[in-house]
Amino acid sequence: MSRSTPQEPPALVALTGSSRLGALARRLAQAVTAGVLAEVQQRDARIRAVHLRVFASLENGPARAVAVARLLGTTKQTTGPVIDELVAWGYLARRDDPADARAKLVDFTGAGRELAEAAAEAVRVLESRVADEVGREELDRCRETLWRAVGALEPPGG
């Protein structure tokens, strides 16, 4: 999550019908992320995939930086600089946490909410393309199956 020049995304791995679940999941995630980034970067070319993940972590409301990091599976020290960028660019703001005067909550600004909504709309468009290709019922079954697979592999309480 360095602040260096963004690198090219990794090349997509050639997959076959017998590819492993993890490889297929990564390929799908890469395709969705690339599609969302293409849309969002039309508004701000500085946005990277990690910024989108921070936005997604705030979709249920403001959160402490440590909670954002936990949702992203990383540390506050790693997530902090990314949040700092989004604050500096005017997409996020820090405000006092009413539950703890020593803590700060991270929340969207108006511009940040607009950008997050643009990202969410890009996801809806991509999902609609998938539904057009495989059918809505098949997409819903796939989503359900993937959630069950995730549940089967996550540790209890995870």
**What's the overall geometry?**
globular
**Biggest pleated sheet:** 2 strands, antiparallel
Radius of gyration: 17 Å
Helix segment count? Answer: 6
Q: Which strand order do you get reading across the main beta sheet?
A: 1-2
Mean pLDDT: 89
Helix percentage range: 55-70%
Structural class: mainly alpha
**Ends distance:** 24 Å
Indicate the CATH topology: Arc Repressor Mutant, subunit A
Number of domains: 1
Poorly predicted ranges: 1-7
CATH architecture descriptor name: Orthogonal Bundle
Order of helices and strands: HHHHEEHH
* The level-1 CATH class: Mainly Alpha
Count all strands and give the number.
2
Protein name: MarR family winged helix-turn-helix transcriptional regulator
Domain HTH marR-type: 38-139
Blueprint of the fold:
Blueprint: H1 21-40, H2 49-57, H3 65-72, H4 76-88, E1 92-97, E2 100-108, H5 110-134, H6 136-153
Antiparallel strand pairs: 1-2
